[in-house]
Request: fold
Amino acid sequence: MAKLIGTQSEAIKVTFKPDFGVHCLRLGFAIDKDKKKVQQLFATIDITMVALLDESTYSLQSYIEMEEVIFFATFDFSKELFESFIEHLQPRSIASEIQTALTSQPFKWFRDLESNNSSPFIAIHSEIGDTVHTNENESYAPFTVKRFM
Reply:
């Protein structure tokens, strides 16, 4: 679809959504007045993609709507939380598919947008990560998962 729009700047607008972590930092929802990280509970996160970032870190992505704006949210978690992630995924029927995808190359799972299957979802207890990453197209602040529920 982005190719049909015609210009690189328009393609970037379609491809990149504002980051939810950066938005929470701007609003003051991520750090309290004493400079401590606010614990964030997400009751239902629809998962669009999960990937193994390196030998010890996974990342899942989702879209979150707030005030009629759709944001892209990133949740990073350690390999120690991987079994809990698989255990808490809903619907259960997709857990083995995701687990298989994450244990063999290219170590990524993407939601099939053309499938009639339900989107996987999970509950997350997290806090904002320590870093805001920036590249030529965006800035993003991943949340760090404390536990899955």
Notes: The chain has one domain: 17-148. The two ends are 36 Å apart (CA to CA). The beta strands are 40-46, 49-54, 57-66, 69-78, 108-110, 121-128, 133-134, 139-140, 143-148. Residues 1-14 have pLDDT under 50 and may be disordered.
